[in-house]
Amino acid sequence: MPIYDMAVYFTHRFASIYRIELNEDEIAFVAFHIGAYLENTTHTTERITCIILAESYHTLSQTLVREVGENFTDRLLILDVMPLNRYLQYRPACDFIITALPLEGERRPVVKVSPILTKQNITAIREMLDAIDRQRELESARSFLKQLLHKELYFRNVCFADETDCIQFLGQKCIDNGYATDAFVQDVLLRESLSCTAFTSALAVPHAVSQYAERSFICVLHNDMPIVWKDKRIHFVLMIGITQQEMKYFKDAFNLIVELFSSTSRTLSLLKTDSFEEFCEQMY
Description:
alpha/beta, about 50% helix, Rossmann fold, 4-stranded parallel sheet, 4-stranded mixed sheet, flat
């Protein structure tokens, strides 16, 4: 196990420096603490953080903090508990505030609770956690989307007889630029034959069934005159390829693209673009 190996290395170095002997029980003790540290560090970066505002040294405040921690131990990290005046003086960073005290004009999200936590309070905190999680997923998808767009894979007003011709053209450009292989393009054609990837009246998103890309990409075609795509007439083709390592980000990025093109106003804004830079600006 990596953690145990880390403990073995540490205890070996420690024993060598101080000229002592350490047995397996002591190695296991060190491994436990390394594991606990890594677990806490991981949770710190993944869990949502909050600060609880409550009266100091008050029995009800202690109960509130304990109940919040017990109800959301896997999702929430309580960074601090402080009275209102100290918070207003320092305003330490966190994702949101849980307060049993009056708080006005706060920029961060706030959940107002009773000194004795109620079911409604628990529901409100859970809804806040869900909202922050959704926002994090959206920001992650946007960040990943930025990495997928490449100027050499952007094409404007290229005519095709049908979707097969279009996929073959875009696929060859991806091969030529080192983003995909012929096997990937054939897999995209297979996916298209199984089910049409025109998801809106303006957009098709061809992608592979089982092949991974050499490098993650979105190959973009933007036509003023619509392309006949099965029974639809579309203006945008976004062929997507994802590496195996980055496949976990695909779903959120895909949903974001479909959501963008599901909005009539956003689609019209994208239709008005005339360059790679303008297209990217609207996508972001």
